[in-house]
Design brief:
By secondary structure, the protein is α/β, with parallel strands linked by helices. It is built from 6 helices and 6 strands.
């Protein structure tokens, strides 16, 4: 398939990792945010020309949301990716850099596949390139060590700096999103879609 015909960018991640805040910083759109995990319960999109940016519901623990509804939300995420994979240019998987390694290790220690890794592998199986947005970097003490460990959990050998086209350290609340914005600009440019760069605020 001609990849230049892919014009959707999908944002995914665990509940409360700051996806909506990051989207607002990048695109200047009024994506709903909230203090309580699970505010986004169904995919939301905005369009710029033929570019579609999709904010998928957060998955994982959502306080006050019944388990059955959480499973429905997770199924919605999987269905959206599976049904529209051929249209997705790339996915941005947003993680909380300050807690990601601990969460992944806790799950793997129980012999379970962490949701974040499961989603990452699903995208790869669907031939959807993934960019990891390591958010909340302002809460991280040792930047390079943390990013190296994050890369390890995703199967990318350190040092993380060799993956600057796939790993973007950001702090959405502080407005520090340049590394991810640069990746988005580069990928749109590589697709010959400089006409879509105006979507970025």
């Amino acid at each position: 398939m001609n990849r230049s015909s892919r014009t959707e960018i999908v944002f995914s991640g665990r509940s409360n990792v700051g996806k909506s805040t990051l989207l607002n910083e990048l695109f200047g759109q009024a994506f709903e945010t909230g203090r309580r995990p699970g505010v986004t319960l169904k995919p939301r999109t905005f369009r710029y020309r033929d570019l579609v940016v999709t904010d998928l519901p957060g998955f994982g623990f959502m306080q006050g949301v019944p388990d059955t509804k959480q499973e429905i939300v997770k199924d919605q995420v999987v269905r959206h990716l599976e049904s529209g994979a051929e249209n997705v240019l790339f996915a941005v998987q947003v993680i909380d850099a300050s807690s990601f390694v601990e969460i992944v290790d806790r799950w793997t220690g129980r012999g379970e596949v962490p949701n974040e890794i499961d989603l990452y592998e699903l995208c790869r199986d669907l031939d959807i390139p993934v960019v990891v947005a390591a958010n909340k970097m302002d809460k991280v003490e040792d930047r390079d060590e943390t990013l190296d460990e994050i890369c390890r959990r995703f199967g990318m050998l350190p040092p993380w700096r060799q993956w600057r086209d796939r790993v973007a350290p950001v702090s959405a609340k502080g407005g520090d999103v340049e590394p991810l914005e640069r990746i988005i600009r580069d990928r749109l440019h590589d697709e010959g879609r400089d006409d879509l760069l105006g979507a970025l605020s």
